[in-house]
Amino acid sequence: MAASLWRAATGASQKAEDYDGVEFWTSPERSGWLTKQGEYIKTWRRRWFVLKQGKLFWFKESQITRSSKPRGVIPVGTCLTVKGAEDVLNKQFAFELSTSADTMYFIADSEKEKEEWINSVGRSIVQHSRSVTDSEVVDYDSKR
């Protein structure tokens, strides 16, 4: 769990199982162009994002097929907040996605797009987040 969101997201150890069988090439909950900031080199790059089944994938191209390789994937369930970040970055249509350890920044093409991404990702966070205590509960009675 201590692994950085960025390292998880940028695929430093990306394997097919990171996608949890998510067919990102078909019927996404949301997809579109966003500009994202790099982790180490703080340049802004335009990427095609796909939100599906609690994973936020990004690609260099918008033509996504079964053989497409994501440039990164964020397990949205590990995120705590998604909110506007125009004041933080001093850039129009900016928003941020945060975990307890990291914050990633994005820029949408319009206010409407920004709000739609915030709403979609926010809904996905709620649907896919799991309480830490729930996962740590051990019911010894059920093992007798």
What does this structure look like?
With 144 residues, this protein is an alpha+beta fold. 22% of the residues lie in helices and 28% in strands. It has one domain: PH-domain like (Roll), CATH 2.30.29. It has 4 helices and 7 strands; from the N terminus they run αβββββαββαα. A 7-stranded antiparallel sheet has the order 4-3-2-1-7-6-5. It starts with a helix and ends in an 8-residue tail after the last helix.
Topology:
Layout (H helix, E strand, L loop, with lengths): L4 H5 L20 E8 L6 E9 L2 E5 L12 E4 L5 E4 L1 H4 L4 E5 L4 E5 L3 H18 L3 H5 L8
Antiparallel strand pairs: 1-2, 1-7, 2-3, 3-4, 5-6, 6-7
* Number of helices in the DSSP assignment: 4
CATH class: Mainly Beta
Q: How many domains, in number, for the residues?
A: 1
Tell the overall outline.
globular
Structural class: alpha+beta
| Main β sheet profile | 7 strands, antiparallel
End-to-end C-alpha gap: 30 Å
CATH architecture: Roll
Average pLDDT number: 83
Q: Strand-residue fraction?
A: 25-35%
Major sheet strand order: 4-3-2-1-7-6-5
Please bin the fraction of helical residues: 10-25%
- The SSE order reads HEEEEEHEEHH
Low-confidence stretches: 10-14, 132-136
- CATH topology heading: PH-domain like
Assigned CATH superfamily: Pleckstrin-homology domain (PH domain)/Phosphotyrosine-binding domain (PTB)
The counted number of beta strands is 7
| Rg, Cα atoms, Å | 16 Å
